[in-house]
Design a protein that fits this description.
2 copies of one chain form a homodimer. The first copy, chain A, is of the alpha/beta class and 368 residues long. In chain A, 29% of the residues lie in helices and 22% in strands. In chain A, helix 4 links the parallel strand 4 (79-81) and strand 5 (105-108).
Chain lengths: 368, 368
């Protein structure tokens, strides 16, 4: 089947570009002696995770208990849950994942949550490995660096079924800083707090083997920071409009990785006044100030005009756009964009080789 | 099971409010002699559609061929596809739906598409009923009113397997006009163009039995316009922050229908500086300038801070907010918000009675 015969709107992965992206990241990590535990929140797809592992990743980072369940059930190991598991049913679900994938690690940022996890781990009879989630400036989850983190480490060390293994320090605020030098400065400043806390914890007798961080924007910055042991970059597999805007070491477009993922859409209205495609705000992520970018015709801009509709402005189109044409768009922001689809169609050139399922939406498997 | 025991983030439907909403709309339509063909793009849920039909709706409007397939397979009839079916595989899929639900109608706005549909209908040996999609100011799909629409009607009348039955005139630009009187003026102006075109087509011998239009914002405006035969309102079943902002006939909050749908979320970080919930931009629609509104605590505002995270500002909270608390939020925009979930949990008071599946994402069933 040809790509242009697919039902639209749909997600299409260019396998050549995708393979080039994951191989490039793998080579980079190996040559810089940093481990990869890439983030599955980007793709929510077992098949992508398997290929990352095959190229040397030591595990997979996940953002939800549902992602952990899907990856564990598929046989993937070395899982790191980068969000706090607070309350039920999350904690019970985590214990069930532990019985399948005992090396699963989870982050923690609160003593109350340490006690909750200890009670559950004791009841389940498991040993749970934790990383301290450190807020190094993103102002989201995470405990403050320094003394608060040390007190949390002490709480963990008193919990019989919990083992502290390191620190998770995600500088989300640095990932999309525009311009390589500015981004480097932001990441070094943020990660500096993680290094200081690591040293403080070590001086107090705690084991800090792991310092996990990094994004697709800082993959080539963080390994130069002494002490970062692994990267959890995710978006590099697909890329998106947002990452292309941040600029590379040379040039205003970030081209270290190629845009491998597109949304295929059909022109369903074409008149003198209007050109409308069948991909709207249920087909593209809408969380950024910008929309998708057309990848195979230049001189055309896209505007959201409804759940199932986008409007094209043909300013200086590089080719004619006709009713029924199939057009490809680079998603504005890949993570929430992938989340809008049930599968990724895989294409080698223009030939569709098959599709990979994307896991269920939101909380995943029903709780009852 | 209690609502607060559900895995978060999840969609929760308050059944009492939901039933009150659909009963209220049903009573209104009956007393104003207008038919209901409510839009399933809002809910993408067979169980909701069945309840709308049970209360007297003459059919269901759908926005995609996948929605039509799901509704037809579930035995629902009187389907109206409010988007143009252009190109393959849409046209072939439409023919398969016709074999199951022969009274399915589809909109058309282009002579080229008329010819495409005629060829497919002839090959399939079916008679396809069309409505002309009229652009009455939304500037999305739709042919221009007046002569262009008349020419299209003439094309249809020459096509042996196609029958023109009416006009679809959706004034999406009027639906969210703030203030009842301003909204009424906008809708009357828009629908006036549909009435003129209807009269022009009738004078030229075309059958216009159906004039379909209306939104949840104009449900009590459009039936007063002579000639509107049916309403395709959708959002009234659930409501959202956006519709509440448009104002009612009295008062600045639109309260004709009650907010029946909420997203349940867990507080996963609580410290002096920050309060973070596990519902972010994969849990809420992000296509509007505003976020969700907390429904069970006042004096708190929500900000998106990531795919899986939202930050709460506790300005003047009406109660204490603690780690692990489950909080309910009214979605910013219900249609794309529902689209982020696999199921709607149904609650009677605080008791979860079960859940209704939401159909697949995007294009629906795989094309191969």
């Amino acid at each position: 089947m040809n790509v242009l015969d697919l039902a639209t709107p749909c997600l299409v992965l260019d396998l050549d570009r995708f393979e080039s992206n994951i191989e490039r990241m793998s080579r980079f990590a190996k040559s810089h002696s940093v481990s990869m535990r890439p983030h599955a929140k980007t793709h929510k797809c077992v098949e992508v995770a398997r290929r990352q592992i095959a190229l040397g990743a030591i595990g997979i980072s996940v953002a939800t208990i549902a992602e952990a369940e899907v990856m564990a059930a598929a046989g993937l190991r070395g899982l790191l849950l980068t969000a706090e598991m607070v309350g039920e049913p999350k904690v019970s679900r985590l214990m069930r994942v532990m019985s399948q994938a005992p090396d699963t690690m989870v982050v923690v940022d609160n003593p109350e949550n340490v006690h909750e996890l200890q009670r559950a781990a004791a009841t389940a009879g498991v040993q749970l490995t934790l990383l301290i989630d450190l807020d190094i400036g993103q102002n989201r989850t995470g405990i403050e660096p320094g003394e608060p983190a040390l007190h949390l480490a002490e709480e963990i060390s008193r919990a019989r079924n919990l083992s502290l293994k390191g620190i998770c320090a995600y500088a989300g605020h640095a990932a999309h800083v525009v311009g390589f030098e500015a981004r480097k400065a932001a990441s070094i400043k943020a990660m500096g707090q993680a290094l200081e806390t690591r040293d403080l914890l070590r001086r107090n007798g705690h084991t800090i083997e792991i310092l996990s961080g990094g994004s697709s924007g800082t993959y080539n910055i963080d390994p130069e920071i002494d002490g970062v042991t692994e990267l959890q970059s995710g978006s590099y597999v697909f890329m998106d409009v947002e990452y292309r805007k941040i600029g590379g070491q040379s040039g205003s477009v970030y081209q270290d990785f190629e845009p491998a993922l597109t949304v295929l859409s059909t022109v369903i209205h074409r008149s003198q006044k209007k050109t409308i495609v069948d991909a709207g705000l249920k087909a593209f992520a809408t969380d950024r100030a910008f929309g998708p970018e057309l990848s195979d015709v230049s001189g055309v801009t896209y505007t959201f005009v409804g759940d199932e509709h986008g409007s094209l402005k043909l300013e200086n189109p590089s080719r004619e756009v006709r009713l029924g044409d199939k057009l490809r768009f680079i998603p504005p922001h890949c993570d929430p964009n992938v989340n809008l689809y049930d599968r990724i169609y895989c294409a080698r050139g223009e030939n569709v080789e098959g599709f990979w399922p994307i896991m269920q939406r939101a909380t995943g498997s029903p709780y009852f």
